[in-house]
Specification:
This protein is mostly helical. About 35% of the residues lie in helices and about 0% in strands. The chain starts with a helix and ends in a 20-residue tail after the last helix.
Length: about 80
């Protein structure tokens, strides 16, 4: 789990070089990017458990998930 406090100091962190075998691969053949505009849920649902299920399924097929979420704390941007 990476928290906002970490992201605030990202420019101070060491950059780890990309492994050579990964550099030789076509990035578009091994990655998928999705922009999720909204994450809708019911208040009585345990969304953490649902996300854990997704992460476990992805890890079983040797994949990774990176998710950056931004909370508007009830104040949605214009046009929402």
């Amino acid at each position: 789990m990476v928290y906002k406090t970490y992201l605030d100091h990202l420019d101070e962190m060491e950059v780890v070089p990309c492994p050579e075998d990964l550099q030789k691969r076509d990035i578009n053949s091994i990655t998928r990017f999705f922009k999720i505009e909204r994450f809708v849920y019911a208040k009585n649902e345990n969304n953490r458990d649902k996300l854990i299920s997704v992460f476990q399924a992805v890890s079983r097929c040797t994949g990774s998930v990176i998710m950056l979420s931004k909370s508007f704390a009830g104040n949605f941007p214009e046009g929402r």
